[in-house]
Design goal:
Length: about 160
């Protein structure tokens, strides 16, 4: 004699799942579980489908679609996010999109020092010339030209100026 499975109403299936009727109705509406003959639910098939088609429990308090805080699913998500961040960072480092902070600081320090040295060298180069000048606009042009020469040489990476 074949054993027939007992089909449940939506309300009875909600009691079986220990959830609300609206939760079961939503599961049917979204296709997570299917209805059998007469709009009833086969609890064995529906439980399997529910498990396969339903993600981790959601945090209804914040409504963000992520697993509730303190759950295994939330911890697993955090681990996945951390791994993804590390992989992204490693990729950016290998593709030379990222450089070390120490290297940037050292380069910036060296550049600032060279800038200072070049600008401070201008008076040594032009003081004797400027001492013989009497026209203020001529002195201004001389200083401007010498500063531009020093800055362009710095921008071009010329180590001699």
């Amino acid at each position: 004699m074949a054993h027939r499975r007992r089909l449940l109403t939506l309300r009875a299936y909600a009691r079986h799942r220990r959830c609300t009727l609206s939760t079961v109705q939503k599961a049917v509406a979204t296709g997570r579980i299917a209805l059998g003959p007469g709009g009833r639910v086969d609890p064995l098939e529906a439980d399997i489908a529910w498990q396969a088609n339903t993600g981790p429990r959601r945090d209804s308090a914040n409504g963000n679609g992520h697993a509730a805080p303190g759950t295994v699913a939330a911890a697993a998500r955090e681990v996945q996010l951390a791994r993804a961040r590390l992989l992204r960072q490693e990729y950016r480092k290998r593709s030379r999109e990222l450089v070390s902070r120490r290297r940037v600081e050292r380069t910036l320090f060296n550049f600032a020092r060279r800038l200072r040295d070049r600008i401070l060298a201008v008076p040594d180069r032009v003081s004797a010339i400027a001492a013989g000048m009497t026209d203020a606009s001529e002195i201004h042009r001389l200083l401007t030209r010498e500063l531009e020469i020093a800055l362009v040489a710095l921008a071009d990476g010329d180590p001699t100026t």
